[in-house]
Amino acid sequence: MNAFHDSLTNLPNRALFMDRLGHAVERTKHHHTHLFAVLFIDIDRFKIVNDGLGHTIGDQLLIAIAQRLQTCLYSSDTFARLGGDEFTILLEDIADNSEAIAIANHMQQVLLQPFNLSGYEVFTSASIGIVISSSGYEEAESVLRDADTAMYRAKARGKAQYVVFEPDMYAGAITRLQSESDMRKALERNEFRFVLANQLCL
After folding, report:
1. Any residues with CB less than 8 A from the CB of 101 and at least 6 apart, and which?
2. Domain ranges (residues) in the chain
């Protein structure tokens, strides 16, 4: 397999996806009517399948998922495997965000049907984060970061959900990271003080 395709699924890999996403970002800078969307897909409960049924079945599931999701896309779309159970899709020249949402819904539906793998019937679903290029991006990495953020929001809502990225999601993520960093530093410096207080029950 060459340096730009995933050895398991034969899909484009992260390097090729980021290259194409970078070109899409540049086109949008020069042609403001050019809209694209990125879908970040994480397979729900994949670790349970992988740990419970083994890596061979896990690999078969990833291949089957890739084949099934490809039926939802046009040949002009870029469908890539980032690694593990994470996939990304670049939809170019879309009319508006409803087009990306419709594809995400279609994908959720096709994944509802069970997968028959070596005698096992496996049920799964996906959490999907969606980013629309109208947010004014300067680089491909920022688009992927925001799609990933939206995907985690979708996963937090439960299984088989999608979320469209909003700028305040990133601000919230930064705030949480800063709070965690501040707490770690405070622990390292012994800056926490524990106070015992008497309680009176009436």
Report:
1. 130, 162, 164
2. 14-166
- SS3 for 79? strand
pLDDT band at 111 (very low <50, low <70, confident <90, very high): very high
129-149 pLDDT, tens digit per residue, is 999 997 679 999 999 999 999
Parallel, antiparallel, or unpaired for β 120-122 and 115-117? antiparallel
Instruction: State if pTM tops 0.85.
Output: no
- CATH class of domain segment(s) 14-166: alpha beta
Q: Is 85 a catalytic residue?
A: yes
Residues facing 132 on adjacent strands = 37
d(CA 128, CA 76): 20
| Contact between residue 149 and residue 164 where contact means Cβ atoms under 8 Å apart | no
Residue of 6, 85, 146, 148 marked catalytic: 85
